[in-house]
Amino acid sequence: MNLEEIKTEIMNLPIESQWQLLEDLIKNLRMQSEWEQDLPFETRIPNEETLKTIDEAERGIGLIECEDADNLFRKLGI
Fold it and tell me: Do 11 and 38 fall into the same domain?
């Protein structure tokens, strides 16, 4: 769903629902902002390459199976 479709969907909601949606959005943005400030690292939105890698890993594509930690380190050359 693109931004224009989302806007149309929202505009078709009753006004009470639009206000509730806005309130929920503001609450979520505040919570996210507070949560990110408490993290000991910078948060970023993943780029396309990272999203692709995550998707492939979740589907089991390109994974290297290891018997144990020693086997993992040998395969990594560590």
Answer: yes
